[in-house]
Write a structure and sequence with these properties.
six-stranded mixed β-sheet, binds adenosine-5'-triphosphate, 248 residues, binds magnesium ion
Length: 248
């Protein structure tokens, strides 16, 4: 099943007298449970694409379905609900709340989910479990400033997963980390993708992701120029025609 379906997505930003065409017709289907990487040069539209999937921004034209639900016609209240219940975000700069300790940071999205019906005790338990899953069980009462960059990004991952979203979106989650820490963060995301069956869509400049991703979407000037992965392999086979007979 496709958890995300985008058809002919365009996004224009007015800029003074002109218009920036950030996305110029994106067609993209993402299968549930995928680990999808979006790569492309600066300004190619990666953040814009993620923001549209996450209902942070709305497209200028086209259709977006999240879990089968068309989101382009929803009102603000229902978009807020999708952001809270269906999607988790991980940002390049972590975006943790400095005055809250690690446990409180991870509890925060659950406290916003008033309709979630969890008691305070259940919220605490769920947040503690997520923090343990990212390997920070002994840092619960630390503030973000007392953690390393890699540890902060682990907290952000725990915070994104605590609401049990169907999709986690991550905009350059390793950009502020050294390559070794970045690789650890990607392995952790991949592990959670496999164990929790959460779909991940993340942008990156880091070519190391190729070995983790189930699909690599290459984007340039607001267009998808290539898709590597199982989908692309099928496409190549079709093009190659009967030449592969020998594999039978
Ligand atoms: N709010 C905005 N107003 C005007 N133009 C914008 C706005 N946001 C993005 N753009 C433009 O849209 C295009 C795509 O931007 P986007 O941030 O999606 O690129 P990106 O691939 O994420 O780049 P980077 O790798 O630098 O983060 C760029 O030309 C950018 O200048
Ligand atoms: Mg960006």
């Amino acid at each position: 099943m496709n958890i995300i379906e985008m058809k002919s997505i365009k996004k224009d930003y007015p800029l003074g007298e002109t218009v920036v065409h950030a996305l110029r017709g994106i067609d993209l289907d993402v299968e549930e449970g995928g680990f999808i990487s979006i790569i492309g040069p600066s300004g190619s539209g990666k953040t814009t694409l993620l923001n549209i999937i996450g209902c942070i921004d709305i497209p200028s034209a086209g259709s977006v379905k999240i879990g089968g639900e068309e989101i382009t016609s929803l009102d603000d209240r229902r978009l807020t609900n999708i952001r809270l219940f269906k999607v988790g975000f991980i940002f390049q700069t972590f975006n943790l709340i400095p005055v809250l300790n690690l446990l409180e940071n991870v509890e925060f999205p659950l406290l916003l989910m008033k309709e979630g019906g969890l008691t305070k005790g259940e919220i605490r338990k769920r947040a503690q479990k997520c923090i343990e899953e990212v390997g920070l069980g002994s840092f619960m009462d630390h503030r973000p400033a007392e953690l390393s960059g890699g540890q902060r990004q682990r907290v952000a991952i725990a915070r994104a997963l605590v609401t049990k979203p169907q999709i986690v979106l991550a905009d350059e989650p390793t950009a502020n980390l050294d390559s070794e820490t970045g690789a650890t963060i990607l392995s952790l995301m991949k592990h959670l993708n496999e164990t929790e069956k959460t779909t991940f869509v993340f942008s990156t400049h880091d070519s190391d992701v190729l070995k983790y991703a189930s699909q690599v979407i290459k984007i340039r000037d607001g267009h998808i120029i290539d898709i590597d992965g199982p989908g692309a392999a099928k496409k190549m086979k079709k093009k190659a025609g009967p030449a592969k007979r020998g594999t039978r």
